[in-house]
Amino acid sequence: MRVSKIKRKTKETEVEARINLDGSGTASVDTGIKFFDHMLSSFAKHGCFDLRVKARGDFEHHVAEDTMIALGEAIDRALGAKAGIRRMGDAIVPMDDALALAAVDLSGRAYPEIEVKFAKRKVGDLSSDLIKHVLQVLAINGKFNLHVQVLRGQNDHHKAEAIFKALGVALAEAVSKSARRKGVPSTKGVI
Q1: Which CATH number is 3-175 given?
Q2: Where are the alpha helices (DSSP H) in the chain?
């Protein structure tokens, strides 16, 4: 089973993140930031990942950032040598008025490119500027390319939710195993 658990403790936060890449989409997320919990649960549901996250800390920014550091590391560790995976995945997901694109390449090289603008300072109880940042942090610590673009939308909640759903679907495709694929999906022979 491709399962990993990361514990991260600093002077500012304490985070525990566990992911099963071959799960059924069950999530138990408690960061103290309700909208962030909702986004991570949506990511897990639509990616069919079993996800458990427990995080506490001093400030919203530190908690959200350290949660995504731990989650990125857990994803990378759960993938192991990456033999037999598809490696790349993408999704375009609607959420009412919003439409978001997410594309992933589990290349072993961190590169986030996130294009999203929010009208308000907060989405629920989460600072809207953190959404772009936490996606960048996830890609960097997960060691993968992540491109996200909101193609249209007016409602900030819908834009954010479409992003996290698209990320779940794209990552699920990238981590999926292919019976036709032998070894590591790279002409270099390593990722």
Answers
A1: 3.30.230.40
A2: 34-47, 60-79, 128-142, 156-175
